[in-house]
Every structure is written in structure tokens, then in C-alpha cells.
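Continuing the series of single-chain predictions for the mutant panel. This is the parent chain; the variants come on the following pages.
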Amino acid sequence: MEGIKNFLKRKNIEISLKRYGIDALGAMAQGLFCSLLIGTIINTFGAQFNIPALTNVVATINDTEYTVGGLASAMSGPAMAVAIGYALQAPPLVLFSLITAGFASNALGGAGGPLAVLFVAIVTAEIGKAVSKETKIDILVTPLVTIGVGVLLSAWWAPPLGALANEVGSLIMWATELRPFLMGILVSVIVGIALTLPISSAAICAALSLTGLAGGAAVAGCCAQMVGFAVMSFKENKWGGLISQGIGTSMLQMGNIVKNPRIWIAPILCSAITGPIATCVFKMEMNGAAISSGMGTCGLVGPIGVYTGWVSEITEGTRAAITGLDWFGLLLICFVLPAVITPLINMVCRKLGWVKDGDLTLDA
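Parent structure:
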């Protein structure tokens, strides 16, 4: 046993909640943002402002056409895997080999691709670290073992993890069949949680074609998480944190949530409030691209999706005009209410001693 401990220490393999649940998750959030999320933002802005450089096809691979944003989104699996490997302090040959493992696990995982990447990349990276520099032909052994393990684990684990993520999607679809009030709560809370978790809420919404009233509730839930975390953590993270979470991703808080799950109470309760307000009071629908339902304020894609839906309805003749009430509801649900309600609920959590100074601090 002592020999195993010494080997793990020598290989910098630390089996701990901090290493896997905080370091790896935090890095993965950055990898996801630098690929899928930023790609979607680029595509959205290109389409909205008619920027040819962002809407033109720049590459065609196996009959699939890619824009700049499309190329970024296509690299989400490798980006997340390499980010995880970097957090686990993997040596270069292991780190570069994780590109293949990330691509395989994300592709085979479907809507649950990011969740599959998390598990596969962690195990693959640690096994790669274990064999690294143990032979005189390390240049061959380490990539072969790392890629081999990564692909095998992807084939084994990614499909069921993807199915698990799709179960979340099925629950969302079930919620859309209920009355607007209860549906607003369930969809808003579930999609909002999915946005912050290491699963792709955007991919789930896209796979389910989640639009309409349910899409509006999803937008509300995502905005509650992003704007909520951004504003209530302003004391710790200042303007950089406000921007990175408010128009970036609330997944950046996942490491802190693992350390203290109670910091999640305020954004979740806020989404339970804004969801039914969206569906019952303002009847806000998201009839733009379905992926926008799961993006929230990330690059302002969620609100822009609601707006593009309005424009499409006017073109189709199903909507006469965009009213002041429409704009008021959109601003209230996506920005104002999350910025007000979440910090107020968090104040109660602080008074109860559930949340303390520093619990929401992001790593620099």
C-alpha cells in the first residue's frame, strides 16, 4: 500500500474531491466557454448584425459546412478535455492526447457530451500520467495508452451518460405538458440547473427543439443563474466576475458549489420565481433557434433569441408588432428580477450562516 501511495505522489495523481470536483470542473467550464458557447455567440452576432465574415462558410469537412463559430463549437470536446488535463497537471504528451479522448466522448455522449467528457477525461488523464515517462519509448507509449484508454472509455461510458442527460430533457418535455404555472417553475429550475452543471443545457434544448412557452421559461431559468450569480458575487469578483458570469457562464461557480452547495440556493429559488412570471404573466415565448433557450445571457444569446422569435412571428403574420410590454417583460425577466431577487435571497442565506465571505470567489 505504501508503494502505491508513493507512486501516486510521484506521478502527481491526487484522488480528491478538490482535484476532480473543483479544479477539473472549473477548468472544464472555461473549455466549454472557449468552444461551444463562444461559437454560438459568434454565430448569433453574425446573423443578427449581418456580418459576412461571421456568416460565410470558411471550411467544408465531409460535406459539412462550417462558419467561424461553427468551427469553435465543433471543438468543444477537445477543448474541455484539454482544459481538464491542464487542471490535473498532465504532462505534454498526455495533454495533447486528450484531444482525441475529448472529441470521442463528446461526440458519443450526445446532449450529455460535456458530462461524458468530464468523466472520461479525468480517468484518461490520470492513467496517462501513470504511464508517462515510465519507458524509454515514452513518445510512443504515452500517446498510445492515453488515446486507447480515452476512446475505449468513450465507447463504454459516453452513450449511457448521454442517455442520462437526455432523461433530463425528457423531464423538461414532460413539464411543458403541464399547466403554465407549474411548467414555468419546473422548466426554469431544471434548465437553469443544467446550465450551471457540466452538461450542455444549450445542446439539450437544441436536441428537444425546446421553443415556445417552454423555451421562454428555459431562458428565464438560465438568466436567473447567470445574472444571479454575477450580481450576488460582485463583492468577491468585481467587474471581471460580473462580466465573466453575466455574459459568460455560471458554470464558473461549479467548483464553489461543490465546496458549498448552499450558494446555489438563491439562483435556483430565483429561477423558480421568474419562470412562472415568464409563462403566466408575460407569456414570453422563445421562438428563435432552440439552442438559444439554453444559453441565457451568455453573449446575450437567450434574449436575442426571444427577439428573433418576435421578428419571425411578425414576418409570418402571427404577431402584429413588438409592444412595449414585450420589451418590459424581457428586460424584467432576463436582467432586472435576477439582479434583485437573487442577492436578496442570498442575504437571508448569509444571515443563516449558510453562505460566508469568499464562498463565491472565482479563481483568478
